[in-house]
Amino acid sequence: MPKESIVPEVVILRLPLYIRALSQMLSEGQTVISSNELGNRLQVTPAQIRKDLSYFGRFGKQGRGYKIESLIEELTKILGLNRQWDSCIVGVGRLGKAIINYPGFVPEGFKIIAAFDNDPSKIGENVNEIEILSIKKIKSTVEKKNIKIAILAVPASIAQDVITSLVDTKIKAILNYAPIAPKVPDTLILRNIDPVLSLQSMTYYLD
Amino acid sequence: MPKESIVPEVVILRLPLYIRALSQMLSEGQTVISSNELGNRLQVTPAQIRKDLSYFGRFGKQGRGYKIESLIEELTKILGLNRQWDSCIVGVGRLGKAIINYPGFVPEGFKIIAAFDNDPSKIGENVNEIEILSIKKIKSTVEKKNIKIAILAVPASIAQDVITSLVDTKIKAILNYAPIAPKVPDTLILRNIDPVLSLQSMTYYLD
What we know:
homodimer; 207 residues; alpha/beta; Rossmann fold; 7-stranded mixed β-sheet; two-stranded antiparallel sheet
């Protein structure tokens, strides 16, 4: 992991969920919330929420709850979500195209500004106003455009090679859609989006 | 969870990963594997692997490792993956269409055989030979076709209502793509596919 940090990763993983729930409450007109209420909403204990937040200093006053708007603002800042993150997509097949085109895949604050593929017939083509470049240009392009995040939508068979090749670039975070359990060096952070595993772990409960 | 079970859910969540790694090894020509080697490959401890497998009886002999092919077969049977699971998709917007069309979203053994939407202009349309039906027909259709798995690709704003409405049907497992943290009754099992949360939990580590 690129940042030495005393905050456990599970805590970092929960913060976006807190932001999401708080934003929803704010949009419903609520302005203050207790850790009890937030815990109920997210099915975690209030103690867990208080402990998670305590890593980042004091929010809210004992017995008065949290001011939702300022808590959202603080958490957004902590996660570095108060700025735009330019990202690139690697692999522009059907899945890659869907990711570029479907707004739900990429949240506000993340913008796909470059796309790469190894298929010569695709290079030069435009998808949603983004030109597909040769994968050979990834290193120089992400350096020039200051891109640290790559969304990987390549076939499973080449995903590990692509991930390994990214080590040598400015890419530091990968959102991987390929159904593999990749080996990732400590200098990269990776999250897998894996509907296959998710489906396969539910059938156990269906007789 | 529909099945009373002494096997912890985290164990069930790991089994598909084991199958994936073992299948890859088998395709590379390997026939036997030790828990050490499998652990290395998956970045879990060998003790963890032995403990996980011990929930389901004895596999392999002390000091001789596991026979890959029969271990795959056993795990496949345990997870109920040795049969086809007919599934349906709810929400046939851009994302829903991508899921129907892109083979990587739905693994072997799962087949989307029905699709539902609430947009009258879409009903009757075909996507990859699947007719889009009115969401109002979901209860009777899943009952008739014996569908227990729903893939949810509806907008976040209506996802909770759709999930709640499924409680009353034969659907027992939901793969949810809507970016919400839904409340789910005990009778349903749900997995969230959430690229938004994944992206938002990486930026913390990028300065």
